[in-house]
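Reading a protein record of the kind used here takes only a little practice. To see the layout at work, look at the sequence and tokens printed below.
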Amino acid sequence: TQLLLLATGRVVYCGAADKSMEYFTQIGFPCPEYSNPPDFYMKLLRTGAGYEAASLRENLTAGQAFSEMAAGQWEKQDSTPYLAVDNSPPDTPTVQGSTEEQQRIAHDMEEYSGYAVGFKRQFATLAKRNMTNMLRSPTSGTGRLAQTIVQGLLLGAVFWDLDDEEQGVFSKQAALLFLSMTQAMLPMMGVLHTMPVELDLVLRESQASLYSITAQFLAKTATEIPFLLFFPTLFLSISYWMVGFNDTADAFWTQAGYLICTAILAQSFGTLISAASPSVDVAMLLGPLIFLPMMLVAGFFNPDMASWLEWFQDISFVKWSYEASLLVEFEDRVLDVNASDPNVTYVNGNDVLEELSVDSTLPQVLFVELGYIVGLRFLTWLVLLKRSKNKIQQ
């Protein structure tokens, strides 16, 4: 396939399309990562993309100055290395049918201003692309797998085989907090690191009417679900029995379910921050800045929170995740201790929950977490629509 780029009537590039990026890199204008080369070339020829030589000639725009420079470069360039091997003309598509039918098809094509394919096709194609990208990405693929295994083994080794005595109960509280924090931080930090970069490409492609923001948003959400189901379950499967948590199957799967809700909620939180951030640096700054205070008021470090901070504790999703793990582990559970011993602090799990001021129920926690997930995802969708409209206006 050959590519011809013209500017002000002069040739800027003429040769093989797959060698064009090599040429523009050679003259000092590499195509940015995650950018579509045709979009980059058009922007370069139209605006100059910050070409500094434009300031030397005030009567020219940056785009005009760049075009003159690039045309001059090409005229001095030996174009032989960039010529396409196959110079045969491409097949010309024809429209079968009567003249009236051809005119109708041509008229429909002129009038059509929407997307090239329907919503279902957009969703399927984008889901496939997102899944491929996630499998290739170290933060969501092999790297995340290694992190999950190592941290699961680390948790099990540090809190190995805890009993129901007072010290063991306290250590289980710390283990449960670590459980909640890791499954919140890993998904959130992963999306903070990758989404702002991907979003630049998504906004450009959406502006070009390749697909809708809604299709991309739903496809991205759908492809994240298998990872958000797998990694928390794997993490818990490794560490749960090593620590010595409640050893019933119901308790394990309930803990896994709430841990998955935590991972989805944390990633939804990170997705909203990423959608509203102009760059990776800003997203990586805002994420920990908001997450760490939520962790501090979760209830482990200071169960007796000041009254004027209770509202902040109630909006901390880390607090709700931690309470869910405590309820699954201790609610209505008879601890394996000598109840007649006067030195025993906790006789049953409800004593532990009362000591920690946990007065929620599992259905209440589930309702709050699902509300958070739906609300954060909806806000993210609105932010993406807003940024897409601003991109089109620019």
User: Anything to note?
Assistant: The radius of gyration is 29 Å.
